[in-house]
Amino acid sequence: MATSRVLKKWALALVCAILGAPSGAVAAKLAIVIDDLGYQRMPEALAALPPQISVSILPDTPYDRATSKLAHQQRRDVLLHMPMEPLHRAPLEMATLTRDMDRQTLQQVLRWGLQRVPDAIAVNNHMGSSLTQSAQAMSWVMEVLSEQGLFFLDSRTTAKSVALKQAERQNVPALRRHIFLDHLSTEKFINQQLSRAIRQAKINGYAIAIGHPYPVTLDVLGQALPQLEAQGIQLVRLSDLSPSY
């Protein structure tokens, strides 16, 4: 009888999570990261969003340190948005980590990037569809994160990324992105992607979405975030999901 009651309880919690109905179960969690900050001052529309919204800052940009300081003051999680080599030719940031770097050079550039974003508690990759496929390069990245007590968010710009496997081998806490919100920067598309993130959170218990500081993205989030609780979703900081942070 006790086993039957436990099974019924779990079944009810699962149904409530999927349907978004209120229950005694913990709400599904959604973390949102806004990438590509640093070239301009933090937009007012972003500063107005809840402090659970995390920000990821490109190093060697005009406002990298100022944005890091402001976001920290707002009690946001701050990430270093570290440029990494893509598979296809594209304009590269000066501080891009590339596959032809040796260990010393790669780690020196990464440490310098962390100095430019001093409040970072984690690193996620900007581009990186090539570098995140290299077990050797990701091993060197994880060495730096381990020594500095940081975690890694795989932006998942390629399905062939080995970043999470390498992080696990080196005991570095790591997470992965599930949904990109705005690779089409239209209100309709962003709302569709946000709905996908919500569904994913209800099915798996949590989801991580990445967006950019486009006015339309920030406007959609400003309208949608106050409605999350009614849908059975808890907006959380990225660090709330990190397994060991």
Q: What percent of residues are in strands?
A: 15-25%
CATH class descriptor name? Alpha Beta
Low-confidence runs of at least 5 consecutive residues: 1-24
State the order of secondary-structure elements, H for helix, E for strand: HEHEHEHEHEHEEHEHE
Domain module count: 1
Shape: globular
**What portion of residues is helical?**
25-40%
Provide the residue-averaged pLDDT. Answer: 91
CATH architecture: Alpha-Beta Barrel
Major sheet summary line: 9 strands, parallel
CATH homologous superfamily descriptor: Glycoside hydrolase/deacetylase
Describe what you observe in this structure.
There is one protein chain. With 245 residues, the protein is α/β, with parallel strands linked by helices. It has one domain: Glycoside hydrolase/deacetylase (TIM Barrel, Alpha-Beta Barrel), CATH 3.20.20. It is built from eight helices and nine strands. Strands 1, 2, 3, 4, 5, 6, 7, 8 and 9 form a nine-stranded parallel sheet that branches. Helix 4 crosses helix 5. The chain starts with a helix and ends in a 10-residue tail after the last strand. The N terminus is likely disordered.
Features:
8 helices, 39% helix, nine-stranded parallel sheet, 245 residues, TIM Barrel, 18% strand, alpha/beta
Describe the structure concisely for a colleague.
The protein has helices at residues 2-19, 44-47, 64-73, 103-116, 135-148, 163-169, 187-204, 215-224; strands at residues 28-37, 54-57, 78-84, 122-127, 151-154, 174-176, 179-180, 206-211, 233-235. It has 245 residues and is α/β, with parallel strands linked by helices. Residues 1-24 have low confidence and may be disordered.
